[in-house]
Queue: 4 jobs
Job 1
Amino acid sequence: MKTAITGLTPEVEVPEEGLPISAAAAACGLSVDALRYYEREGLTLTPADRAPSGRRRYFEQDLSWLAGLVMLRRTGMPIRDIRAFAQVCREKDTEPERLAVLEAHRDRILAQLRETQGHLAAIERKINFYRESIVKK
């Protein structure tokens, strides 16, 4: 299965038997609890593979997907949108739908960025005002 978000795989040596949940979570910048939450919420592409002992094992494709989820969350994508994105990624030939989800998110981020840039400009004006006020004293 081709992951939808590439180039995000953490640089971690994944042994043939996979990584335990603690190592996978740490590699992706998650807590173990957060990784379990992502699995419960249906955000992973597939359920984690299990070792004969029943413990979860994660492989490179899992890490790549999880790193993509972390990136999307850090950009403010809501869990419901990530869940929808994961769902379309599980289905074949849904590239247009995947693209639409990411483009809509990009548009929201760009709008937030423009708003933040406006706030930053206002702060800069206030800083300049106070700097000039201090110099005049």
Job 2
Amino acid sequence: MAKQRKTDAKDAPLSLRERNKLRTRQELLQAALEVFAEAGYGSATVEAIATRAGTSKVTVYTYFPQGREELFRELYEQINIELVERATNIFGRKGHFADRVVGLTRALLDVAERPLIGRFYSIEDPSLDQALKPVRGHASRMWIELIAKDLQSAQNENRLASTASPEAIATLVVGAMRSALSDVARGWSRSADLEQALESLVRGLEKR
């Protein structure tokens, strides 16, 4: 008789209690996002978040002992993780550096177009910046490294028109992408227009 394969603990189905805890955690995160969108970080108190979620401050601190700072860090890091995974998938396949930058741009603009999420991820607020300091820049730094590596390869093969530092170029490209995120999230620009413009800029880096 064939031996029965042991079930990996991480593959085992979640218990009802575990599912309920995950649901409560996500409800608190969603409540924090909604309060933030309506009143800004300064008014997104633990009490306001608890009221929006229909629970108590005790429950909020049970799931997020550091309070609202921890809540918003987790919200931000969830988006970081998604964008890192998208980048890993894009750069895990062979492709032209410009095509890959376009793919990254599309991923970021997908975030920008989501109600609540886009504004939160693109927000510039000194008080929120301090709370997000431990997680801010995780995705951007990875993207800069990946783009710079592609540009360095192109430069080594004499395919790049510029002799500037690939890392410096990558930093400016990601900065432009972040600016596009902000404009789309605020409804100031159409994502298709910015995506097309960024693609033109990046393709212009290659020798003709």
Job 3
Amino acid sequence: MAQTDAQKRAQEKYEADNRERRRYLTSRSTARSFIRSKATAEDLGELQKLIDQRRNELQK
């Protein structure tokens, strides 16, 4: 089903108004996809260390 002009304008406005949120969601999706399908055991170990460090930073 094709979008109407009004729908296209609304989508463009949403994307412009929510640029940072879209970047966040894209990054999160990419990270999850990598972990689920491509990460090796070595990658997962390194990521776990980074996650632990980040968690500690957020708790301070």
Job 4
Amino acid sequence: MNFNNKEFATWRSQFGRVTFLDSLGTPLSVKGHIVATRFATEESGSRLQSGIWAEDPLSPGERAAGPDQLGALGRVVISSHYSSIAEKLSQPVLANALANGVPLPDELRVVGVAWRVIAGPLAGRRFVGGYFSSGGDLPAWRERNGKLGFERPDFLRLNRPNATFFGIEEGILKQVVAMARAREPFVQQISGFEPVDFFYSGFSVLRDGSALGPLDWFLPEEQVEF
């Protein structure tokens, strides 16, 4: 597909028919993004090159007069995103509250374990979560001088399966739980996790505060609840 031909123009025109309606049925203009990718091979010839076409257009409709008009949509998008994270954290009640928009009662507490990053630029930061393992010899808990840690079952075995930590930054999880308890349709934006310079290929932290990396980088500190 060429980005200048009729076929592309026909494909692009479909996005002009996408509308967002408020509770009164009035079309509101919201930001979106459209991406098209063209792949070329040796058989395509020298005139056709691989490329990416992208834009961030506004949908048809009136511009929102204030944040309250788009508050409900914003809450749905944010809640849906963090609901999937709560599922991975084995927090089904929190995930359900976020997915269905049913406020989480104060008497139901979200309980987890806070883990501290022990090295790198994130040393000292805490994430609430746990670990996944592909099976085999799992690390064993130990407690020494009031601190929790892991003890490998066989220190001589080098091909042991590695466990992977998954969690969410403690402060961001606190905001997410507060949003799940709120009864107002409008919610302030959840704080994004500040970017971190590259330090290890197997360790990643996204803007939503979720972290994924080898268990060796994390040390469980205490049980927390929100």
